[in-house]
Design goal:
- 25% of the residues lie in helices and 28% in strands.
- It has eight helices and 14 strands.
């Protein structure tokens, strides 16, 4: 429900936002804003009951913008429309964001929506700001494990920091099976070191999907991991694949694949995984309330 007046057509619903204009100009300006949100001339003359949910939402957006506000706040604006309608509204909002010099605050629980539309993200939990930055920064360098969980980073693991590596600017990270310490046989990764972690520090670490490459078993390198497909879900044009790594018991890699790279990935098939260690992001596990990063 978008607080539209049921007895007025779309133009009549936008016109009250233009009371600062002469009566003759209101209807013309209302039509201009409805054109802006891509409502046809016929749709502009319909009452709300004759419009779809997405069309009603476009009327509400036009009415809000007609006031020429200094700030637009959208609170879960796409939750009441179906997926097909939602894609069109995404494009509309993206176009408006480029065309209008008005800050837009979008409140959402949909991670894909936030990444698609936002120039800057603010991650909040229980009324507290945990991190803010560009979508890319937050997705690849979450401040702590809680942020990683809230923004839906699937490939998050546990480990222990061993200290500096022989290569300058790098450190040694032991990847712990199931997050349990004490396994001397667990693999050790050479990753970036910002010099903030003491040896023995318990850590969480993440790697974005961009840092994971699937290779044929015959092409497996010395630093690659053997893997087996344990789940493969076809979701239209993409496939969600879960991989188990024998060298790290309990670890699961989750990848979203498209195109030719998802062909032949059936449950039980074996392959190898190559990780870009430069994209590994390490976060200390804190026992207090102050969040941290490394």
């Amino acid at each position: 429900h978008y607080a539209l007046m049921p007895l007025l057509d779309a133009i009549g619903n936008v016109a009250p936002a233009l009371l600062h204009l002469p009566a003759v100009a209101r209807r013309r300006e209302a039509q201009r804003w409805l054109d802006h949100v891509q409502l046809s001339a016929g749709e502009q003359r319909r009452r709300p009951s004759a419009l779809s949910g997405g069309q009603q939402q476009r009327v509400a957006v036009a009415r809000a913008l007609a006031r020429e506000p200094k700030l637009v706040r959208l609170d879960e604006p796409f939750s009441a429309v179906d997926q097909m309608m939602r894609q069109g509204l995404y494009r509309l909002l993206a176009d408006l964001r480029r065309e209008l010099a008005v800050p837009i605050v979008l409140v959402t629980h949909d991670l894909n929506e936030a990444r698609l539309l936002a120039d800057r993200l603010v991650v909040m939990d229980a009324g507290r700001v945990l991190q803010q930055g560009t979508p890319s920064q937050i997705h690849t360098q979450p401040r702590n494990a809680r942020v990683a969980d809230l923004v839906g980073i699937q490939n998050r693991f546990h480990g222990v920091w061993l200290g500096p590596a022989p290569t300058p600017g790098h450190g040694l990270l032991r990847w712990l099976p199931d997050g349990e310490a004490g396994s001397e046989r667990a693999p050790v990764l050479t990753v970036r070191d910002k010099g903030r972690l003491p040896p023995g520090q318990a850590v969480s670490w993440v790697i974005p999907s961009d840092g994971i490459t699937l290779v044929e078993p015959s092409a497996r390198g010395v630093d690659d991991f053997a893997a087996q497909v344990v789940e493969s879900r076809h979701l239209g044009e993409i496939t969600l694949v879960t991989l188990a790594l024998p060298d790290v018991p309990g670890a699961r890699l989750v990848l979203t694949l498209s195109g030719a790279q998802r062909q032949g990935l059936v449950v039980g098939s074996g392959l190898a995984v190559r990780m870009d260690r430069q994209l590994v992001h390490v976060m200390p596990v804190r026992t207090g309330s102050a969040p941290g990063t490394a």
